[in-house]
Amino acid sequence: MTYTEVEITAELVRDLLREQHPDLADRPVRLGARGWDNQLWRLGDDLAVRLPWATQDADELLRKEHTWLPALASRLPLPVPVPQRLGEPSALFPRSWIVTTWVPGEPADRAPVTRAAEAADALAAFLTALHQPAPDGAPAGRDRGGSLADYSEGFVKGLASATEMGLIPDPDAATLRRARGWAVRRALGGIHIGEAGVRGRPGGKATWGPPAQAALRRLTATAHR
């Protein structure tokens, strides 16, 4: 993980706005959050500035968001940040950045889940609306945003062959196990980010650890049933 050598401050954000989007430069600027790849600075009450401070991949992702999120937002049942402006690299800051809308709410890693079933239904509806065939010209990702067929074709064919040979009597249970494996992988990633936060590493979030550990406990418990 390589973090930018430029210190990101409220003064820098304001200078960038004066340089490229002066009509927004007089708005109040305050820190919103520091993520794994980006820093988020509130810009007044309804906007935010996102600046990459980690790997170079973050620049490419921000440009993709600027191009594609406005079209996706209208199809989704929950509000998402919608990019409004694009910032170009300059002498002040050598990377791309964006101005986006601000979605009010409490971060999920800081709020207890009091209505788990309702939250699961809302998340499922959001993902169902999101996971639709991509339009022509949509960018492909590496481990994100690619065709699901690229990840599933070999598994599905192998599962069908093994089932026909009588090696797997319950193929539905084998898909289920595969899904649990993906969930375990994500839980371990959350634990890693949580530990990074406990140790004070940039981008780490200590609040990610407990829910990731709880998810892992649930997954290992169900695996023994």
Summarize the structure.
It contains 6 helices and 5 strands. The protein is an alpha+beta fold and about 220 residues long. It has a 5-stranded antiparallel sheet, with helices on both faces.
Could you characterize what this model shows?
With 225 residues, the protein is an alpha+beta fold. 46% of the residues lie in helices and 12% in strands. The protein contains six helices and five strands; from the N terminus they run H-E-E-E-H-E-E-H-H-H-H. Strands 1-2-3-5-4 form a five-stranded antiparallel β-sheet, with helices on both faces. Strand 2 (38-43) and strand 3 (47-52) form a beta hairpin. Helix 5 runs antiparallel to helix 6. The longest helix is centred in the last third of the chain and has 28 residues, at 171-198. The mean pLDDT is 85.
Notable traits:
single chain; 225 residues; alpha+beta; five-stranded antiparallel beta sheet; 6 helices; 5 strands; 46% helix
The N- and C-terminal alpha carbons lie at a distance of 39 Å
What sort of overall outline do the alpha carbons produce when their principal axes are compared? globular
| Topology order in helix (H) and strand (E) letters | HEEEHEEHHHH
Q: Order the strands across the largest sheet as they lie in space.
A: 1-2-3-5-4
Describe the main β-sheet briefly. Answer: 5 strands, antiparallel
How much helicity do the residues have? Answer: 40-55%
> Please, how many helices?
6
Compute the CA-based radius of gyration: 21 Å
Question: Roughly what is the average pLDDT, rounded to an integer?
Answer: 85
Percent in strands: 5-15%
Number of strands: 5
Weakly predicted, low-confidence segments: none
- Label the structural class: alpha+beta
